[in-house]
Amino acid sequence: MIYLNMFITFFKIGLFSFGGGYAILAMIKQEVVLNNPWVTEAEFMQIVAISQMTPGPIAINTATFIGYTKGGIPGSVLCTFGVILPSLILMLLITISYIKLSKTPWFKAIFKRLRLLSLGLIAAALIMVLGHAVQSLFALLVFIACFVSSWKFKVNPFYMLIASAIVGILFGDISISTMNWSEISHALLGIFSHAS
Q1: Helix 105-133 to helix 41-53 angle, to the nearest 10 degrees?
Q2: Which helix (H) or strand (E) holds 90?
Q3: Euclidean distance between CA atoms 162 and 143, whole angstroms
């Protein structure tokens, strides 16, 4: 029953979310932290951080990780398929419709309003993540440096991720000596043992 509930939840998330991966985070949090307490808020923020660091769309990575956390490999497959399926169906329908209706004024008006909806959802995701991520002056400075580097200088996000990790280890609150290597190694062993 949990697998069906996970699939339906992520299908609903995929169906009613517009604006890309970051816009979907607020809805995922609502569903998996508040409506279905599958993960805590702290775990959700860690999942978001890990999903940002792994290749691929953040919404799919988050769905996969939450599915695995709650239901192992079958859970990760169902959550991933659930969040992807509505987009696949809708994009097929929109592509067919767009080709036929792209010149009509009412169709243009719909897409103009959807852009505003996307902007609002992305802003909500920013506020949600910012409150948990920026909890010190150091974190605020790293955020500002990454924001300016991305916006003004178009620096590749991968390079910002590596630089932020190095700066965080060297100057931030986290150091290699305070990391719980036992927990990290057990987590990695768990991932690799399930993968084989």
Answers
A1: 110
A2: helix 58-101
A3: 14
Left if phi > 0, otherwise alpha if psi is -120 to 50, otherwise beta: which for 54?
A: beta
The pair of structure tokens assigned to 158 is 């991968």
The terminus-to-terminus CA distance of the chain in angstroms comes to 26
CA distance 68 to 43: 13
Q: How far is CA 38 from the centre of its chain?
A: 16
Q: Which of 132, 159, 124 is nearest to 41 (CA)?
A: 132
pLDDT digits (tens, 9 = 90+) for 13-72: 988 877 666 778 888 999 999 999 999 988 998 898 888 888 888 889 999 999 999 999
CA distance 178 to 164: 17
What residue spans of 102-173 are helical by DSSP H? 105-133, 137-151, 157-171
